[in-house]
Amino acid sequence: MLTKSNITGVLLTLFLYFKLGSSIFCYDCNSAFDSRCGEQFDSFSLGVVNCSLRDPPEHIDPVESTFCRVIKMEIYGNVRIVRECGYLEEESGEHTCRRQTGNGDVFVTYCTCNTDLCNGAPKIHQNMPFILTGYVIYYLQKIL
To answer: What start and end residues bound the annotated signal peptide (predicted)?
Structure first.
């Protein structure tokens, strides 16, 4: 007979099995359309996507996303931040930040990372997978 703890264990095992595969979860937002995505990042109710289920942009060959990225654009004093799935790895394979300068007062900081929800705020992203897992287990036990 299946008990609540047995079902919870099976669901948790399935969750970890799929997590340990090639999927990665990233925040997906643009501060031009949602101020919570900006420098004062607020992850509450922002979009989280399973990047392995997303199609890459049309201008690149079909490839699965394996990392998250944050792009901070500073253009003539205006700041825009985009958080999304990443598709093309750096040649070095390292996940770091790099800053590029354009013409005039244009700066772009491009950061990549390869853990779930790592493209959020630094103090949030480290504990988010544990918090989400805890909520899932808690609510599963309530409904079962």
So the answer is: 1-23
